[in-house]
Amino acid sequence: MFMFLKELANLGAPSGFEDSVRNFLKEHAVADEIYTDSIGNLICHKKGAGKKVMVAAHMDEVGLLITGITDSGYLKFNALGGIETAVLCSKKVYIGEKKIPGIISAKAVHLQTSDEMSTPLKFKNMYIDIGASNRSEAEKKVSLGDAAVFDGEYTPFGNNLVKSKALDDRVGCAILLELMKETYDSDMYFVFTVQEEIGTRGAKVASYNIKPDIALVIEGTTCSDVYGSMEHNQVTRLGDGAVLTAMDRAAISNREYFNFIVEIAKENNIKLQIKKTIMGGTDAGAIVTSGTGVKTAVLAAPCRYIHSPVSVMNLSDYESLKELSKLVCKNIERSGL
Amino acid sequence: MELLKKLALCTSPSGREDGIREIIKEEVKECFDEIYTDALGNLICHKKGNGKKLMLCAHMDEIGFVVTYIDNSGFLRFGNVGGILAYNSINSRVVFENGTVGTISYENKENPSNINLSKMYIDIGATSREDAEKKVKIGDMAVYHSQFYENGNRAISKALDDRAGCAILIEAVKKAEKSANDLFVVFTSQEEVGLRGAKVASNSVEPDMAVSVDVSNVGDTPASLELNLKLGEGPAVKMKDSSYIIHPSARRYMLDCAKNANIKFQLEASSYGGTDTGAIHLSGNGVPAGTISIPTRYIHSANEVIDIADYKASVELVKTVIETSAEEYLQA
Q1: Which of A3, A11, A280, B282 lies 20 to 30 Å from B275 when distance is taken between CA atoms?
Q2: Which of B92, B122, B144 represents a domain boundary (last residue)?
Q3: In this structure, are residues B142 and B65 in contact, taking their beta carbons and an 8 Å threshold?
Q4: Contacts of A225 in chain B (CB under 8 A)
């Protein structure tokens, strides 16, 4: 049932290196027309007579970009997307197409100055160890400009939960694959975007070309229902269902669209929670202001420890998100939008 | 100042411009050949004419508060819609679209001088979550609850940013004796959250020249920032802010209009702030664009202050812009 999700989450595709995910999606997509645009977005068009609806999920995941190799054979790197240095130390990664295994580390604690110990680690003080003994040995395996992703295999966890890297946004990709199997009255564009994590770049180009009337963005979103977090700061909660965003830093949901989604969830007894903070942004930010403007909403599944090797999701939330997205798409012609 | 009062007191934060849009539509419906609302809620008014496409705009939205959480005791946590300042908000009254009134306070174990919005809440007088939810839902928005006051010289109100601009456009359109361009007057949405409405409106209008009317900060109060604008010295032709530098064609056009309007006017060159002009001038293939600034004190508070003579002179200036063909300036 969650095969797509598992396979997709296990593929490595940081921003700008989305090929493996795109190839997988191309193989499984069901549409009248499937093409890749110049920046790498995969666009799947299911023709219909109604409004032009763009349903988007991003293929890329956060990762690291190799920016240097030292004389001793260690790799220097920077972030592709929003990664806190606090989650990086001692993590396992895979680098490049050859999936060279590496370990992220930094100066050992007993060698750090007191200043270094009391401030967060900086990228410039960290390195990846691939077991090479010098530069030329390292250069045989890795090149400058290669990208790395977390080693974080999709694994069942606790009661109906999973832990994995890249749930943001393979959740959305998996759901779009499922949605494509259905039939719709609208003119549907299922769009798998590139480079969301480094600035919603793919979505900007895709929506410029498609010029949708309405857009729905499917995401994995932050979840902070954890130790030390006051209830009002718990952006979303695991198990409380699909997440609808009223506004974030990048977009305000169209009000009628927002109310329509709330109604659909109510009518069909689908668990829905409203996101409790206004931080962050998604592809919706790029889509909403493209062309002459697009009515946009964002639906998501809550993921604890997002942007880490071990993001955690409740499969029941995934189911709620899938059902709700499907019903929104099927009923959009009667929404009056 | 009845029109300004009516517009300023309407509750319409970014993304929730329905209320103000209806009022403005009613005011201007006789003045245009075509009026429509686009996907982002911009109100686009077209008065067909020969010559170049001139787009005049002012933003309808105002800053506000969005409810993000309702606790068991019925207190509301909130986020900012646009540039809300924590110190301007403590003990301010706010009002929701449905008329529910609340007051803003903060977790008082915090030192108020370090306060930020995440430590603040709205008290609507509810006794429990259930009680609060009868009046307010997560995602609902509020604005400062303010009265409109004027004494003949000055007006004090919330949301003069930018209802003053909207009122000036409406009055100027009604007063203009002719329209010398293919005129689009756009009341934009979502300016306060990042010039979003202006960006898409400009993509659909594709203007040849654009002028936005918005408020700008002054430096005429005790120990204020060193800004050259003063209340009472007339509207300003803005040369620069952090979002744009005026195009030479727009500069000549605006300065000639200001001279021909027989009004007192100021020049402004600021390193701060941004207006719809910033989004418009980069849209499409690029648009020569300028800004008329209404000198304003205490911007983004419940009590913004403008000078009524400046307001009237702004109407004259916009009227002159409408009556002046942009064509020759664009050819030069």
Answers
A1: A280
A2: B144
A3: yes
A4: none
